[in-house]
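Components:
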Amino acid sequence: MSLENFSVIESTLREGEQFVNAFFTTDQKIRIAQLLDQFGVEYLELTSPYASESSFQDCCTIANLGLKAKTLTHTRCHIEDAKRAIDTGVDGIDVVIGTSSYLREFSHGKSIDAIVEIAQEVVSWIKSQGVEVRFSTEDSLRSAREDIFRVYEAVDALGVNRVGIADTVGIGTPRQIYDLVADLRSRISADIEFHGHNDSGCAIANAYAALEAGATHIDTSVLGIGERNGITPLGGLVARLYATDSVLVEKYDLPLLKELDSLVAELVGIDIPFNNYITGFSAFTHKAGIHAKAVLNNPSTYEALKPEDFGLTRYIHVAHRLTGWNAVRNRAEQLGLELTDDQAKMLTEKVKEMADDRVLTLDDVDTLLRRNLGGESADSEPELEAVAGD
Ligand code: HCA
Ligand code: CU
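Structure:
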């Protein structure tokens, strides 16, 4: 199992550019690349230089930024594409060809024999140029296993650095991925990369299963952006690995995740989803009174991830009818107000009463606390109209 020894191939600047809203200027690509490099990803995958003239120029620019991360570009399995890729100065080339019957029939029209032949030609040529080469079979999950293994074994014999399994349509389950990777692991010596789409919600679990089965490289993008609903998100993979053992991701500058997610969300014109791993706005918010009480005593009761390790803070949501008196008292303490147990319980009942009528704000609760503890008797009825304040 290679959980201890994995690398991220960060593909925001390749797969991510295939997200419907994505258009990155050169400067924006540089910002993304530099921030990902600072975060500590091991590889950056860049759009094929064959895609357009500025894609070529941007590839050259990023390959020459002097980043710690290795730069890769992504190409079809053609010698001309590979030549153009070499001209950019990247550290490696990720080659891909479709092996499923769908793609063989409706995309490039090649037989498996023809794929093996061209794969050998392209991989040998790239190797002769002294850069890393990865060979991946697009739509691996809907390809016949004997077909993809023939291709992988042929390129493995040539000394390819990595072979890639691509769940192009997001159809695989963790068990299928585990089984496929484990089988492949026993047949070849090259490293194994996994690229998984999220159409059916398994992209993170599948990436994790691939690592458990012996894969060493996982493709990600920031927020998971990519074709359709995207691929394994960088933050989600980090959350998954951290929850297993935070040591696994200590090599990364975790507080930069928030900046990365915010930057990419802004550049592609979306919000960070509320339920996003680590950086979603409610990722560290506790609401029900029972949860709040336990979290105030020991955050691990309801937190698998420590917000402080990501430069974030937890939030106890007080102003609602599920609240509890420990949470209310804690809020009072934050305001510098001392509450006896009885006062806390009585004021909590008032919060619940008010919250049964309408949505409360934290200001409402603060006003109630201040009124009742700032001189006025705790028994006096809060002026609900005035407290509403909105
Ligand atoms: C693509 C398809 C791809 C390739 C993945 C890979 C996929 O847009 O070229 O190179 O391993 O999902 O199959 O992203
Ligand atoms: Cu993809």
